[in-house]
Amino acid sequence: MASISTTSDFLSELVRAVDQIHLLTPDERKELVARGIASIHELRLTLDESGTDTPMTSRALSEVETLISGMDDTPNEVVAAAFMVLCDEINTLLKICETPSGTKGRDQ
């Protein structure tokens, strides 16, 4: 698993991207979405391996995954909202990782 500090740095990067959404190219947007989805999958895998129960993935997150294909025509506001959905999901999973049950698999 990527370190929690690295993942936290990525969250900060996503929030900055929301503030500067109009400056990002479609490729930069796609890369951020892909990195966000990869981070979420990695966090979920880590939690699953430790036997920790995780909340179901939100429907909004599944919509974010489909966003990559149409990124060129997606309005700034929609992309910014997608970034915030990624932030919310990553933040939720990070909080679970920081609980005793979320860290039990990593302590062994």
Give the low-confidence spans: none
- Mean of pLDDT: 83
* Largest sheet, strands/sense/barrel: none
Secondary-structure element series:
HHHHH
**Helix percent band:** 55-70%
Q: How far apart lie the N and C ends?
A: 14 Å
**Gyration radius, to the nearest Å?**
14 Å
Tally of DSSP β-strands: 0
Structural class: mainly alpha
Proportion of beta-strand residues: under 5%
Query: How many helical elements?
Result: 5
What spatial form do the alpha-carbon principal axes imply?
A: elongated
Tell me about this structure:
With 108 residues, this protein is an all-alpha fold. Helix content is 69%, strand content 0%. It contains five helices and no strands. The chain has helices at residues 4-19, 26-49, 59-67, 76-97, 100-103. Helix 1 packs antiparallel against helix 4 (76-97), helix 2 packs parallel to helix 4 and helix 3 packs across helix 4. The protein is elongated and about 40 Å long. It starts with a helix and ends in a 5-residue tail after the last helix. The mean pLDDT is 83.
List keywords for this structure.
108 residues; mainly alpha; 69% helix
In short, what is this structure?
By secondary structure, the chain is mostly helical.
Task: Give the helices and strands, then pairings.
Blueprint: H1 4-19, H2 26-49, H3 59-67, H4 76-97, H5 100-103
